[in-house]
# Entry
Amino acid sequence: MIQSHATAEEIHGHPALQHHFENMEQQREAGTLGMWVFLVTEIMFFGGMFLAYTLYRSTYPQAFASASNHLDITLGTLNTGVLILSSLTMALAVYFTQVGKRQPQILCLVLTLILGLTFLGVKAFEYYDKYESALIPGHLIPSHPFDPHVHHEGDPPNPHAIELLPGATLRQVELFYWIYFAMTGMHALHMIIGAGLLTFLLIYSLKGRFDPEYHSPVEIIGLYWHFVDIVWIFLFPLLYLLGRHFGHGG
Amino acid sequence: MKAEEFELPPPSRVNYLNATYGLKSWLLTKDHKRIALLYLGSITFFFFIGGLYALMIRLELLTPQGDFLQSTTYNKVFTQHGIIMIFFFLIPSIPATLGNFLVPMMIGAKDLAFPRINLLSWYIYLIGGVITIYALLAGGVDTGWTFYTPFSTTFSNSYVVATGLGIFINGFSSILTGLNFIVTIHTMRAPGMTWFRMPLFLWSIYATSLVMILGTPVIAITILLLAFERVSRVGIFDPALGGDPILFQHLFWFYSHPAVYIMVLPSMGVVSELIANFSRKNIFGYRFVAFSSLAIAVFGFLVWGHHLFVTSQSVYAGMIFSFLSFAVAIPSAIKVFNWTATLYKSSISYDTPMLYALGFIGLFTVGGMTGLFLAALALDVHLSDTYFVVAHFHYIMVGGALMGYLGGLHYWWPKITGRMYPEGWGRFSALVIFVGFNLTFLPQFVAGFLGMPRRYHAYPPEFQVFNVLSSAGASILGLGMLIPAIYFVWSMRYGKVAESNPWHLPGLEWRTQSPPITENFDVTPVVTWEAYEFAPPEETEIIGKFGSELEQPA
# Structure
C-alpha cells in the first residue's frame, strides 16, 4: 500500500485535509479503518455479555424461557423494524452525500435520527413496564428491590406476573433480567451516542461542510449506526423469541 | 567537514521541544512526540508509587512475624502494588512512550493517524489514574489485582468500585492507543516502506495493538458488571444469586493473560532492535521474528484457562489449555534463538542499551522456562498460589518488560531529548539492576517451590532466609532504579549534545535531526533499503535539509 503522490498536489488544497495526511484518499482510508477497528473492540465488549448469556441460558433454560415470555414481542418486533428502516435511511444519507445532493441527504439524516429516537422511546416504555411488574433485578432501583420469593395461593398476587415453567426459580428469572438490562441498556447507550453523532452530522450538513470529495464522517458514523443495529438484530431473537415454542402457560 | 560546527549547534535550532512554549502548548499538543513525553512523565510517577508499595511488601516480609503491617493493610499494599504496576505502568509503558514517539518516525509519517485521539488517550489515562489514586487515598482496595468474586463483590470492605472505575477508564486509553497504531501502520507508511521493510519494533507494536483492541474491551465489560454487581446486588458472578464466580475468572483472564503479552511483546520489539543494531548485523530470520510476534498475540488469547487449573474447570479443558500454553513457548523460543543467532560472529558493542538487551534474553528465558512448570497440569497444583508464581511473573514483567523498556529508553534517549545519557553511569546502573533483580526474585523460586504461599504477611520461620535475600535484593534494585531516574533528568540539561545518528544506524528515525522537528521529516522519505541494512556510516543517507547539513560522520 504505497501512498500515491500523483494526486497529492491536486487535492492538497481541500480545507478538510489534516496536515499529517498526504491526501484526502489517505485520510478517508485511515478514518474508515479506524472505525472498523473500533467496531472490533465493540464486538469484544458485547462479547463478554453474550458469553454470560450463553452460559446462563444453557444452565437455566426454563427460567430463561419463562422470563422471555414476559417480554413484549410486539414492541420488540416494532423496534426491530424501526432500526432496520433507520439503517436504510442511513445508507441513503451516505449515498446522497457521496453524490452531493444536499437536500435528500439532510432529509435522510433527520429521518434516521427520528427513527433512532423512536426506538429509544419504545425501549423506555418497555423499561417502565418492567418497573411496574417489579422485574428490575437486585437493588438497581434501591426502593424497588427484586423479590425472589415464590408466591403461593392465598398470598397477594405475584407482583412479577411471571408464569414459571417447571424447574425455574425467580432467582434465575432475576438473572435473565439482569442480563436483559445489561445488554439492552448497553445497546441503548450506544443508540444515544449514535443520536448525538447524527446531530453532529446534521449540523455539519446544514453548514454545507460535506461534498463529494469529503464525506468520510457520514460514511464512518454510518458504519457505527449499522453496527449498533446489527447488535440489536442479535439481541432481539436471543432475548424476546426464546421459549416461544413452550407456548403460553407452559 | 561540517562536523565541528554541529558539535555546538546554534541554540535557535527549531525542534519539537522548542517549537512552541508554554504549558498550554504541551497540554493541548497533538504532536505524538510530546504526547509520548507526557506519558513518560506520568508512567514514571506511577512507577515510583508502585515501587514504594513493593518496598513496603519486602520490608514486611523481612521477618516471619507480621510486625510492620497488619494483615488487612498488607492485603491492600500488595493489591495496590499490582494494580498500579500493571495497569498504570507496564501496560502503557513501551507502547505509550516509545511506541508513540517512534511509530510515525519509523514509518516516515508526520504523526499518528489520529493525533487528537492520541491526546485524548493520555487524558483518559490521567482520569483513570486520578480515580485510582483517590481510591488508594480514601482507603485502598484489598482484593488482589485479580478482583476475584465473590470476595470483591460481596465481602471486601474496600474501595473496589472506585478502583474498578479507574481501571475501566484507563482501559479506553489502551484501546485508543492500539487503534491508533494499527491504523497508522496500515495507512501511513512512507513510499517504499513495505511491511517487510519495517523495523521489528513495529511488528511487535502491531501485535501488541491487536491484543489491546481485542482484549481490553472484555476486561472493561467484566469490571463494569462486577461494579454493578457490588453496588446493586445483581448476580452474574455471585453463587448466592445463581451466578458463577468462575465466569468472572474466565472473563478476567481472557484479558489479563493476553495483557502479559501487551507488556512483554513491545519489549521483545525493542530487544530485536537493540540486538540487531548493537551487533551491527541484520537480524537472523527477520520474517520468523516478525511472525512470531503475531503468533504470540494469537496464541496468547487461547491459554487463559491455565490460571484456572485449580478451580472447577473441566480437566479436559485443562489439558487443552495446558497444551496450548506449551505451544505459546514456541514463538517465544523462536525469538530467543534468532537473537542468539544474530549475536553469533557479529561485532557486538556493550553500550548500556545492549546490556539491557542481553539481560532481557537471560531473564526472559528463565521467566519463560518456569512458565512451562506452571503450564504443566500436575505441577501447577503444587505451585499454584506460591511464591514460585510470583517469581515467575516478575521474571517476565520486570526481567522482561522493564528491562526492554529501560534499554529502549537509553537507546532512543538521544533522539528524544537531543542529549546523551552518561554512558558510564548507564552501564553501572544496568549491572546494579540486573544483580538486584536476580537477588530479589531468584530466592522466591526456591521459597515457592518449598511451599511458601503468596499474599500472606506472615510466614513460617524456615522461609526467612529466602525472604531476607529477596528484601536485600529489592533494596539494591530500588537504588538501581533511582540512578537512571537521576541521570536522565540531569542529562536533559547537562548531557553531551547528541548527533542525529549517534549509533550510526540505517533506521528512518535516525535519518532526521535530534530532537526531530515537529513534522519529523522535512520531506516525506522514500525508503529504498531493507531494515537493518548496515552500510558504512558515510553512506547512510540523511533525509531533509536539517539532516544533510547536520552530520557527515568522519
